[in-house]
Write a structure and sequence with these properties.
Helix content is about 70%, strand content about 5%. It is mainly alpha-helical and about 170 residues long. It has three domains: about 60 residues, Ferritin (Up-down Bundle), CATH 1.20.1260; about 70 residues, Ferritin, core subunit, four-helix bundle (Ferritin); about 35 residues, Rubrerythrin, domain 2. The protein has a three-stranded antiparallel sheet with strand order 2-1-3. Strand 1 and strand 2 form a beta hairpin. The protein is globular and about 45 Å long. About 15% of the residues are buried. The mean pLDDT is about 95. The structure holds fe (ii) ion (2 copies).
């Protein structure tokens, strides 16, 4: 079972990446005028998500919402306390400015995610209903805000129009 558990984790990571890769490829295909290829990439992307979710469920990593929030926070904490700081240092040393930007904005936003998840945990633990708010996401940097989008993204400087409300 140990081997299969490792394989499920690896397959979950691979299928998750394939999903995002195919969505990026679909967007590119649309830009290049290949509408049918875009449709194919989108369909395959959906299928990879189904595979990823099957693997995740079978490993037993989808738990109660409270446990899932704790898992989410520890992931975000690891990213902004350990992973991104070391990645940023290395990218600066190598003079890769685009990578520095990409790691930096992700690093900032992961801290925001950790706070939002912590707020949700507090609400669940106190058995109070969560405040009914919409969330907006910056399409440039991923900044995630409650309520309404700011005039200018405080993380990346993008205008309000770059924010969208996830379905
Ligand atoms: Fe995050
Ligand atoms: Fe932004």
């Amino acid at each position: 079972m140990a081997k299969t558990e490792e394989n499920l984790k690896a397959a979950f990571a691979g299928e998750s990446q394939a999903n995002r890769r195919y969505l990026a490829f679909a967007k590119k295909a649309e830009e290049e005028g290949y509408a049918q290829v875009a449709k194919l990439f989108k369909a395959a992307a959906e299928a990879e998500t189904i595979h990823a979710l099957n693997h995740l469920r079978i490993i037993g990593q989808i738990k109660s919402t409270l446990e899932n929030l704790e898992t989410a926070i520890s992931g975000e904490n690891f990213e902004f306390k350990e992973m991104y700081p070391s990645y940023i240092t290395a990218a600066k040393q190598e003079g890769n400015k685009q990578a520095v930007w990409s790691f930096n904005v992700a690093n900032e936003v992961e801290q925001i995610h950790a706070k939002l998840f912590a707020k949700a945990i507090d609400a669940l633990k106190s058995r109070k209903p969560m405040e009914q708010v919409d969330y907006y996401v910056c399409s440039v940097c991923g900044n995630t805000v409650e309520g309404s989008p700011p005039d200018v993204c405080p993380i990346c400087g993008a205008p309000k129009t770059k924010f969208f409300k996830p379905a």
